[in-house]
């Protein structure tokens, strides 16, 4: 069967792309090699408890009705309502280092107060940094030059611990380089986490994924699970078809791959991995520990 577009991967990006294409009457197929959707942002079940993997909180929270915000624009693009996401704002988050800690909520004033209390000699520089971030146009596509965020922050803040504490959640949520990040990306993450804040849907990732899958299928999109791509077939640099593990071949006008650049290149036939070294795969891994408590966080001192 021929498709307008085949999408490899049913993570959030793959599902969102499928929804947008299906809205405009494209014949779309999403292929997923695993048995559950979600990719890096999924879930598993242990002892009747559903546990989120990857995305535990959604950034860029905005109240209902704020259509000009990133969240408002996302909902408009997917033709979903704010109520559909069933979002609950965070109570409080904490950046905890051995000798210092900073709390923050969706009210940015708390973080300012925390910096004032924990780093009183740095607060003026922090306020100046915030003004620079607020005036920076992160939506502009005219500048492609990489700018060191550490160099920028050192111009406002002299305490390296505070710099690292500000970097910590931003790099965890949205950075793929070691020790530093592009200031363009830093501004995006600073605004999305500290200035707009966190929220979580009632029901977690399972609910959000089911919401997106239902939306995609309601528009006529097709989804195939346990369908692993073995080869991406091309001719003279033009995509022709996919060969699945097992030998089935699927043709489409266009292909969108969300499995990552290196994995995509490895599956291309003719091979496109010449010059791709192990260093190209990236050097960063994130680990996390999850704890199932027998009491409420408030009972342990968290408000």
From TrEMBL:
Molecular functions (GO terms): oxidoreductase activity
Keywords on record: Membrane, Oxidoreductase, Transmembrane, Transmembrane helix
TM regions (residue ranges): 6-23
InterPro entries membership: Amino_oxidase, FAD/NAD-bd_sf
SUPFAM superfamilies: FAD/NAD(P)-binding domain
Residues annotated as domain Amine oxidase: 12-252
Name of the featured protein: Amine oxidase domain-containing protein
């Amino acid at each position: 069967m021929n498709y307008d577009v085949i999408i490899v991967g049913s993570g959030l990006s793959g599902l969102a792309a499928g929804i947008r294409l299906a809205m405009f009457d494209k014949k779309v197929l999403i292929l997923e090699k695993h048995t559950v959707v979600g990719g890096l942002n999924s879930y598993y079940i242990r002892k009747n408890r559903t546990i989120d993997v990857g995305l535990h909180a959604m950034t860029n929270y905005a109240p209902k009705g704020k259509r000009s915000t990133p969240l408002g624009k996302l909902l408009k693009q997917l033709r979903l309502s704010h109520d559909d996401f069933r979002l609950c704002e965070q109570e409080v988050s904490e950046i905890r280092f051995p000798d210092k800690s900073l709390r923050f909520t969706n009210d940015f004033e708390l973080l300012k107060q925390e910096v004032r209390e924990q780093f009183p000699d740095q607060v003026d520089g922090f306020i100046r940094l915030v003004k620079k971030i607020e005036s920076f146009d992160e939506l502009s596509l005219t500048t492609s030059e990489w700018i060191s965020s550490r160099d920028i922050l050192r111009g406002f803040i002299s305490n390296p611990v505070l710099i690292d504490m500000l970097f910590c959640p931003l790099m965890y949520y949205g950075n793929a380089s070691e020790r530093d990040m592009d200031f363009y990306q830093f501004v995006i993450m600073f605004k999305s986490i500290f200035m707009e804040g966190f929220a979580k849907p009632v029901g977690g990732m399972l609910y959000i994924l089911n919401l997106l899958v239902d939306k995609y299928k309601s528009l006529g999109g097709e989804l195939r699970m346990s369908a692993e791509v073995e080869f991406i077939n091309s001719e003279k640099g033009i995509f022709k078809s996919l060969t699945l593990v097992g030998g089935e071949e699927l043709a489409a006008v266009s292909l969108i791959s969300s499995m990552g650049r290196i994995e995509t290149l490895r599956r291309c036939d003719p091979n496109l991995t010449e010059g791709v070294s192990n260093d190209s795969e990236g050097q960063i891994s994130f680990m996390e520990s999850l704890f199932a408590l027998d009491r409420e966080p408030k009972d342990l001192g968290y408000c």
